[in-house]
């Protein structure tokens, strides 16, 4: 069974395989299972991109989509996540996609459930499908990872995107640098070095901005948006000092004029909406990988 929980559980070959499958899906290749197949999306935290791009991916693969609503489910009566998954499994669901506020929520489930879990984000921990779509976007741009410099800028400590990307990019041969307010540096991430934003943006091939994760700050961020933008954000003036070939990325949602100037969101260098587009193809590829591990072959047609 092929769970997708953390990037460091994928080999380089598996990452390359997923990126290659996603490229195939982007070119219109189809993969259709011969029998009716149910998958369930369980989002215990808000989401727009991940939730709906998984749903689009599922529909493109002709899967039957069960959208679980925590507010109207028996979770409200105290049912555990394990019992919820076992229930979905027993009624015929073949894979579950889960976003959950708890870091590593899957550790107590991974050996006990009989269907693949695709992690759609766990607290501050991991966001493997975001990382894979980011890798696809970078690969499309530069055709390599080796030797690239990727600057990840913002609220590093609370970012599952920073954690997943730093691990995978380092393993793929890129150099990762971090930048952002000192109190959000995270020395527990064993990759990357911290530099001032002005150094980061002038030397990076990829400038990856992160949202301030207000919901993980316990109610107090102590930051004024204008001050933050000037000190730590990608301003219009800083963009002018980026390398001519470098690109801007952001997992989104973005806060305009906080971590990124509003006019840069759709500028020529920005790949932010391309990342979202790539998310559909990556999610098709990881669904295929997971379902093949439990169902075997499928009808493939061009
Ligand atoms: N990038 C991302 O995970 O966005 P959502 O929270 O909208 O899914």
UniProtKB/TrEMBL annotation:
Metabolic or biological pathway, per its Swiss-Prot or TrEMBL entry: Pyrimidine metabolism; UMP biosynthesis via de novo pathway; (S)-dihydroorotate from bicarbonate: step 2/3
Source organism superkingdom: Bacteria
A GO MF term: aspartate carbamoyltransferase activity
InterPro entries found in the cross-reference section: Asp/Orn_carbamoyltranf_P-bd, Asp/Orn_carbamoylTrfase, Asp/Orn_carbamoylTrfase_sf, Asp_carbamoyltransf, Asp_carbamoyltransf_Asp/Orn-bd
Keyword Repressor in record: no
Residues reported to bind L-aspartate: 77, 160, 211
Matching Gene3D superfamilies: Aspartate/ornithine carbamoyltransferase (3.40.50.1370)
Catalytic reactions of this protein: carbamoyl phosphate + L-aspartate = N-carbamoyl-L-aspartate + phosphate + H(+)
Record-stated family: Belongs to the aspartate/ornithine carbamoyltransferase superfamily. ATCase family.
Subunit composition and interactions: Heterododecamer (2C3:3R2) of six catalytic PyrB chains organized as two trimers (C3), and six regulatory PyrI chains organized as three dimers (R2).
Name the UniProt record assigns to this protein: Aspartate carbamoyltransferase
Species assigned in the record: Litchfieldia luteola
Organism phylogeny: Bacteria, Bacillati, Bacillota, Bacilli, Bacillales
């Amino acid at each position: 069974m092929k769970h997708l929980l953390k990037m460091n559980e994928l080999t380089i070959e598996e990452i390359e395989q997923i990126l290659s499958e996603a490229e195939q899906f982007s070119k219109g290749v189809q993969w259709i299972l011969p029998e009716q197949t149910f998958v369930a999306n369980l989002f215990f935290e808000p989401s727009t991109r991940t939730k709906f791009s998984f749903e689009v991916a599922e529909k493109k693969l002709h899967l039957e989509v069960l959208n679980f609503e925590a507010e109207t489910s028996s979770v409200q009566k105290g049912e555990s996540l394990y019992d919820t998954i076992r229930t979905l499994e027993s009624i015929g669901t073949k894979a579950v996609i889960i976003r959950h506020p708890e870091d590593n929520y899957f550790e107590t489930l991974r050996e006990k459930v009989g269907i693949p879990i695709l992690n759609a984000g766990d607290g501050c921990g991991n966001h493997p499908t975001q990382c894979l779509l980011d890798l696809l976007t970078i690969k499309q741009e530069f055709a390599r990872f080796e030797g690239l410099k990727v600057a990840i800028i913002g609220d590093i400590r609370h970012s599952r995107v920073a954690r997943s990307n730093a691990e995978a990019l380092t393993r793929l041969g890129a150099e990762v640098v971090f930048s952002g307010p000192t109190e959000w540096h995270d020395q527990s991430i064993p990759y990357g070095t911290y530099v001032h934003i002005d150094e980061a943006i002038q030397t990076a091939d990829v400038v990856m901005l992160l949202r301030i994760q207000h919901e993980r700050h316990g109610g107090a961020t102590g930051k004024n948006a204008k001050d933050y933008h000037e000190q730590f954000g990608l301003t219009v003036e800083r963009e002018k000092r980026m390398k001519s070939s470098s690109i801007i990325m952001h997992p989104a949602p973005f806060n305009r004029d906080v971590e990124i100037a509003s006019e840069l969101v759709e500028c020529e260098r920005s790949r932010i909406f391309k990342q979202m587009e790539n998310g559909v193809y990556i999610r098709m590829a990881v669904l295929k990988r997971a379902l093949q591990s439990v169902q075997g072959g499928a009808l493939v047609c061009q």
